[in-house]
Structures are given as structure tokens and as C-alpha cells.
Amino acid sequence: MSFESAAAKREDVFANHSRVLLCPSILSADLANLTSEINALGDSIDMVHCDVMDGHFVPNLTFGPPVIKSLSKRTDKQLDVHLMVTNPDRLLKSYAEAGASTLVVHQEVVYHAQRTLSEIRALGCYAGISLNPATPLETIQWLLPDLDMILLMSVNPGFGGQSFIPQILDKIKKTRAMIDASGLPIRLQVDGGVTLDNVAEIVRAGADMIVAGSAVFGQESPKEAAEALGRAIRLAKAKL
User: Fold this and answer.
1) Residue from 46, 80, 191, 208 carrying the catalytic annotation
2) Closest Cα partner for 67 from 59, 75, 56, 57?
3) 211 — phi, psi (to 5°)?
4) Residue 9: what pLDDT?
5) E strands along 32-123, which residues?
6) C-alpha distances in angstroms, 110 versus 24, 60, 102, 165, 190?
7) Neighbouring C-alpha atoms within 13 Å toward the C-beta of 199
8) Is 164 helix (H, G, I), strand (E, B) or coil?
9) Stronger pLDDT, 215 or 157, i.e. the higher one
């Protein structure tokens, strides 16, 4: 680690591979009350998923490093930062210094993925790569030793509240098989359209990090919604 990041001061739940992690996306939270919304969830969540969008790679604009830095000072949860941006290499250091625990870049926009992933690790963060629904899994098979996480998008990125694309279940299963065959401790995250109705099936398919936005923050009681998702996740995990 090249500097002592804020992430280093938190419990490292990411490293506990016996747990399936629930990572609500702040994209669906009340941004005017972001800290209180997150902290109200308490121990019902494991990490906080931060969708960084640039209005270019995806048709939306969200959070810059100052927001991540401010949030990092006000929550004890690890920050899972998903860079949905065209030029992620230019931003890695600023988000790492802001307090990111994980930095996830998109396979569709990185020209030299191995170099980018190595840089993320050198900055003291877990390195992840994301695949859009139509991006073939085979594009990352030679990157496995450089990865701590694979993020499969189960919607087309850019907006919250979309429906889960059902054929991604087969992609989750194939990704889990690839990870298991490698013997490497790589986490498999799924993001998009996760609900209480489908989360168990997603976990059974092989996901061990679950991103949920509107299924948590879009509910009347976000804490009760997160607790219900957590129970469904644990039950599905116990049956594996």
C-alpha cells in the first residue's frame, strides 16, 4: 500500500469469503441525507456500493471523489467504488485516496486491463473488473491472477430501478465455474435488478456479493428491506 488510506481503518469484510456480502447502492438513496440513510442500515449491510458515472460511458452523472471522501469519513463500512467511466486510469488514485476499498473498472473501456488492475492493487484497493450484459466472459479469462472481484452487470448500466436480465443467471454460473476452476480467491458480484424475489436464485447461481439499490433504499423501510434481503441471502448460502 503506497499510502494509509481510509479504507485500511475499517473491518475488511471483503476478505471474509465465507460470507455473501450485501452492498446497497447509494444511487437509489436520498442524496441529501446520504450519511444518515447509510448509517441507519447498521449491521444489516456489509459494504456500500458507489456508482460513479461520467455521462459518457453511461448516460448519467453521479459522484466525484469529494463525495466519496466525505462519505468515507462518516461511515464505518467499506466503500465499493464502481467506475462506470470512459477513462478510469486517470481517476484511480483520486478515488483510492478518497477512501475506496475496492475499485472496479469496465472491461469495455480499459485498453490495458492487466496494467490497470495492477495499479489498483498498488494503490491499496481490491481490484475488480465489470462486464456489461453482452460482454463475453472469455475477455477476462487471462486476467484472473490480477483480479479480486468480477462484477457482472445484470442490467445495462446507467440507471437504477431496471429489471434483472434473466439470461445473466447462466453467465453467473459460468463465471463461478471459471473462478472455482482457477482456485483463486476472486469474489463474484452481481449488480442490477436484484430483488427479494430473485436474490436467492442469484446466490445459488454463484454470486457472493449482491448489489441492491431500489430493493433497499427504494422501500418504505430501507433497514427492514436490507434485513429481509440478508435473511434470504443467508438461507440461500446455507443450502449450497
Assistant:
1) 191
2) 75
3) -100, 130
4) 62
5) 47-53, 78-84, 100-106
6) 26, 19, 17, 24, 20
7) 29
8) coil
9) 215
208 counts as catalytic = no
Length of the chain: 240
Q: How far apart are CA 64 and CA 53, in angstroms?
A: 9
Q: How confident is the model at residue 159 (pLDDT cuts 50, 70, 90)?
A: confident
Q: Which three cell numbers stand for residue 35?
A: 450519511
User: Is 8 or 124 the better-scoring residue by pLDDT?
Assistant: 124
Q: What would the grid cell of residue 222 be?
A: 430501507
Residue labelled with grid coordinates 427492514: 224
pLDDT at 3 over 80: no
Q: What is the pLDDT of residue 182?
A: 98
* 191 catalytic per annotation: yes
* Catalytic-role residue among 51, 54, 80, 148: 51
Q: What is the identity of the amino acid at 171?
A: K
Cell of 165: 436480465
What b-and-e string marks burial along 177-193, b requiring 16 or more CB atoms within 10 Å of the CB? ebbeeeeeebbbbbbbb
Q: Is the pLDDT of residue 96 over 90?
A: yes
Report the pLDDT value the prediction gives residue 240, as an integer from 0 to 100: 87
Q: State the amino acid at position 36 in one-letter form.
A: S
Amino acid at 5: S
| 6-238: CATH superfamily | Aldolase class I (3.20.20.70)
